[in-house]
């Protein structure tokens, strides 16, 4: 075991967002675990799960967790290192090893991984027994090779049923250019006993057909959202558009076609699925007219998957107020408005991050402004403003708003972005911010990673789209630790586990809990 305690701190509890006369925000409490120290430069890349014996964390080597060596470390119920660790991928393997999926299911953890050489791909699984925290040897699922094609282009995906009783492994076989591709579907129980083994031919040549998303219906049917391109050239140069989305169900060894979602003259980078209580499926996302890395409106389609009927398909362009919501400089506002009049402006770099379901078939799209700039071997990562759009059950806009956020960091992005939590009709956004921005509505912002004012923050977005920022913990409270908002796991319905580390000394690490009062 390569961890020892750095120094002990008593767990402490800080009350946050206490109720006041102007806001009905429920109290949130934050508890911090003891700071511990790694002997090696290794960081968590996944919080797998927990049971009565403790917590199970996937670690990988390197500053960004980019190295091949991976291990599961066990932490006590009080979030201290237990001294127990299991190495996963054997180190003597030749080739590139990748984790395809890892998940806790009952009293075990399932790990599926691949080993890739120039001409061969192998898929393995491992089972970790949590009763005695022991590892079974890797077992081969399948292997295939083809010296005439690029084996690295083969598709593989791991997904578990919603009740975690079944494991679905979908993987593609190598094909020559222009050939119709074939994918295999293997279904296992959670002990990896094979239940089903089926093959599916792509409806179109692999050069023009791309599996965009794999998800379950509310009846536990396996659904595929795919992109069909007009040519293989467009597949590589998506700026030329020329594609449409297709919805399928994998059924009886066929891609059973459900519906087409045409894109027409706009870029629609990604669509997120949301199942409604009546069984209808909503596919929604951002679209742009000029630049595929921008947004000029929101797209919504509602589909009756039983008969393949598109009940409604709408696109809503954003208004002038939306584009200028965070600007306080008249010259900047006028420049944006002039470009909008000429239809030569969109909000740049916005990416859809999450879609949340609300009562009455309403949904909220959460987007973030993300890009990077490379110069002199330094990559600067920008994770900035958050834009929100609520749509009603007909797909019409209820409200829109923007929240100013500024995460700019050189060479690393794992401390940026945000994590959304839905509580009743409110949404909480958890992220690294700056206490100088508490009352910000327009204009310039302080960077979250500036020397002064660093804070881990929550922004409560109310049901009507208005919002309130609050500091959850200052940099001084965290004693040099910075939270990674995307590394999370729910302990129970009211307690969220997060992880943080010292940016300047990655070996210093700790966990925190964000506790929402019921």
Automatic annotation (TrEMBL):
It comes from the Bacteria. Residues 1-18 form the signal peptide. Keywords: Signal. This is WD40-like Beta Propeller Repeat. It comes from Sinomicrobium oceani.
